[in-house]
Amino acid sequence: xxxxxRLFLCQMALNIFYHIAKAxxxxxxxxxxxxxxxxxxxxxxxxxxxxxxxxxxSSIRLCLTGENADWFYLEGRTIRLNSSFSRILDREVLGxxxxxxxxxxxxxxxxxxxxxxxxxxxxxxxxxxxLEDTIQPRYISELLTVNSMVFTVKARDGDGxxxxxxxxxxxxxxxxxxxxxxxxxMVILDKPLDYETKTQLQVVIxxxxxxxxxxxxxxxxxxxxxxxxxxxxxxxxxxxPVYVDGDHNICTNPVxxxxxxxxxxxxxxxxxxxxxxxxxxxxxxxxxxxYSILSGDDNGRFTIDSKTGEISxxxxxxxxxxxxxxxxxxxxxxxxxxxxxxxxTALVHVLSKNRFPPFFNKTxxxxxxxxxxxxxxxxxxxxxxxxxxxxxxxxxxxxxxxKIHYTMQPLTGSNKLYxxxxxxxxxxxxxxxxxxxxxxxxxxxxxxxxxxxxxxxxDIEVLxxxxxxxxSPFGEERLFGDMNVGMAGGIxxxxxxxxxxxxxxxxxxxxxxxxxxDPADRGAVALGKHxxxxxxxxxxxxxxx
Length: 545
Description:
Elements (H helix, E strand, L loop, with lengths): L3 H20 L8 E6 L7 E4 L11 E6 L6 E4 L2 E4 L9 H4 L2 E10 L2 E13 L7 E2 L7 E4 L7 E4 L2 E2 L6 E5 L9 E2 L7 E4 L10 E10 L7 E11 L7 E3 L2 E6 L2 E5 L2 E7 L5 E2 L8 E3 L9 E7 L6 E3 L6 E3 L11 E10 L6 E11 L12 E7 L6 E2 L1 E2 L3 E2 L17 E7 L7 E3 L5 E3 L9 E10 L5 E11 L11 H5 L5 H31 L3 H9 L18
């Protein structure tokens, strides 16, 4: 039989054992260190708990607390990931570690607390992207030297992957740029820029992951605007192109020319092509220019306006035979840099005073051709003479102005069938003509010095093979077709005089013959009988002798 004291000790021992057994339901656990891949699905197992009690079956209660506790939930003794379709576990957003705490309650009394630290393992789920401020349009001077840095691009990757940069070599402007250090994003000029050739370039740059198997990449196109630099010399206008390569032209300065007379003085000269004008080769800068005469001004006879390039004649030319022409060397230089200059030639021709315009001695010339297979034949006129269509200029003693230029325009369907030489001879493409063709052409004679013109027509007929060329026009109109009015009138008067004389002689001869006839003849005539008809009788018939 137990004494009260022993009973008390036994009861205390049972109570102590009961509390120890009861407390052990929250024991057995430990701090949790786990990993989970980002973008893992909901319900992914984080860790299994090692506590003694079974939550829900005993009087213990488990509770998740802490900053990231809402990313987990308990299922028995298992901690699972609490994500969803709209709430994805993203390392780049949440950071690399989730921290929470597990508290174990027994009869609402905290029996134990464990730390939960879950590392989020990175996945390559982000594409590289360029920082916008590094791929904006750039403005670069064309004077930037080769191997200089043009600009630097920068790309980011949310996963922290290493980025390598490279240019797209297949683009049109790829030859202008290169990247020497692939990880730097520094773009280097690899070819000289030229504003006069191209004012805008485009370079395509790739940013590629180098430490991942996916090798995700991003692309950016950077526009490079080329600014005009002062690297071109002045150019006289209009320039004559001698070489064309795409948009880049190489041209030479024109030769300006003008005609003056011995009477010209204190006059502004208007050159052709004109006016005399130069421009800075850098079209976007257009630096002001200054003009001067390097040589040929003949001691001040010619002067030039330094700002406009206008040339004036100050003194007249006394004798054009002694000074028939002048050659001026004109220089245009930049005001801000005299070493940048260009030189052109201006020719001044001294002419005699023009008093008479050219003219043709007839308005219509008649021409003939014989049908032939020959590729070229001279057009002839009456009498098979070579047709010469030539203008007369009374400013010359012989009427021949060497500065007359002849051109021919078809008035009928004869384009490219005829050609006129500068001697006034007409040449035809006979192999393209047929018998009975008829063409009317207009000939224009232009005085290249005065600009005056004269006009005439050429009427050309194509004859059959073997058909002779008419020796003269038919009829009075054709007879005088090739004569001027004065000559035609003189010939008509002469013909009239000769006709009158012939008529007078004819009448005189008739009178003389009548006077020489015998009386019988005269009597027969008086009786109204023919002298060879005898008198007839009723018994005898008429006899004609």
